[in-house]
Amino acid sequence: MKLMMHCLLRLFCMLPVKNMVLFESMSGFQDNSKALFEEMMAQQLNIKYKMVWFVANPETINHREYPNVRFMKKSGLTRKSLRYLYYNCVAKYCFYTHETLGYRSDNQQIRFFLTHGTPLKDSRGCFGPTEHHTYILSTSSFSADLRSTSLLGGADKMQILGFPRNDTMYREDKGTNQFLEKYNYKKMIVWLPTFKRINNSNRMDFAMDAAQDVSLMSPEFFQTLNEKLASADTLLLIKFHPNQDLRFVSFYDLTHIVTLSNAEMLDASIDLYALLGKTDALITDFSSVYFDYLLQNKPIGFELGDIANYSSGRGFLVEEPLDYMPGEKIREANDFFKFVRLVAADQDEYVLERAELCTKMNHYNDNNSAKRIIKFLEMDGTNT
User: Fold this and answer.
1) What is the spatial distance between Cα 138 and Cα 140, in angstroms, rounded to a whole number?
2) Which of 291, 328, 351, 374 has the most neighbouring CB atoms within 10 Å?
3) Contact indicator for 212, 305 with CB cutoff of 8 Å
4) Is the Cβ–Cβ distance between 244 and 260 less than 8 Å?
């Protein structure tokens, strides 16, 4: 089988490239890949290029909304897998956040690693070699340094153009708006816990094993938290990481706390970054999403109950990670309650610190990142 695949690849790579664009994102029809794709659709580049998306469940997508776009299942030894090989050999452009696309070894194919954010956590050894990528996307010079460190190379391939998904924070989104219409609240906070255990993997990202994978999580904590949120007329949305093994997460049916898995968001067509744009504050631990959220300059609470375990395990790319966390530090339940109270009262002491870090992490502060990528690649026929 491997010999046959190798022969097919050699044959397909001898064919000329076509006006074809490939997309992939680990989290599904989301993230930087989707935001870039939507800008291409808005510019009607689907007329010039045939576009192909590799997703886990093509049947969940309304194909009629996207003319000249093919949605294909990622894996499986079927006829589609041969088509997958063919497309990866003849596509002119390949955009991906996790699973590398594109097999040509000549300069006729552009392979753009859009990444899944700017790393603060030490992710060295989690990615393959950078030789395959034509370009690697970043948001600033400092962010590019962090990313090239995590990739063990690729500094010469970095393109500081901004993340397309950040554009979505400034825009209206139908699915996200329909979801939020179901709730009444004065303030809304999103909590994005980072996974410890990955689905279908023995990998753990923390040094300590535990029965629960989210710090502070207990029935008693959530009951009290719900009471605090209700008195502050505040809604808390807990959105779990796409990789989180949900067997190690407890859900609670409470009036002012809503939990969302990645699958639920995909089913309801809720865009995470459109959702972030509607929020009043963010709670995270050390997830890189807060570097993006700095563009909103809204309060950020850093849930640090596991930072000691993390530091002794996987670690960070910077010497003093707390220097890169401009916001309230949450180490225990009372800190969490305090953050909710401050957000409800519009009390915020970190406006200037966030703005300063945002300048360091984001060269651009606008909603034009996808447009910059398209112009940089001259896909729309314009020159840079």
Assistant:
1) 6
2) 291
3) no
4) no
Distance CA 147, CA 151 (A): 6
Query: Which one-letter amino acid corresponds to residue 265?
Result: M
What's the token pair of residue 9?
Answer: 């690849």
Contact partners, residue 104, CB within 8 Å, separation at least 6: 13, 17, 89
Query: How much is the CA Rg of the chain, to the nearest whole Å?
Result: 21
Strand partners, 21: 51, 93
Evaluate whether 225 touches 236 at the Cβ level (below 8 Å): yes
Give percent above pLDDT 70 in the chain: 86
Q: Token pair for residue 85?
A: 């090989």
- Spell out the domains of the chain, with CATH numbers in brackets: 2-162+366-376 (3.40.50.11820), 170-361 (3.40.50.12580)
Going by C-alpha positions, the residue among 310, 332, 331 that lies closest to residue 321 is 310
To which residue do tokens 């956590």 refer?
121
DSSP state of 249: -
Q: What is the pTM of this model?
A: 0.89
> pLDDT tens digit string along 243-285?
555 554 555 578 999 988 888 888 888 999 999 999 999 999 8
- CA dist 79 and 77 (Å) reads 7
Question: Rounded distance, CA 233 to CA 214, Å?
Answer: 24
Phi-psi region of 141 (alpha: psi -120 to 50; beta: other; left: phi over 0): alpha
pLDDT score of 364 more than 90: yes
95: Cβ contacts below 8 Å, ≥ 6 apart: 21, 22, 23, 24, 32, 33, 36, 37, 101, 112, 114
Residue 349: CB atoms within 10 Å: 11
Q: Is the separation of the CB atoms in 297 and 169 below 8 Å?
A: no
**Segment (H or E) for 83:** helix 79-90
Is residue 115 within 8 A of residue 42, CB to CB? The reply is: no
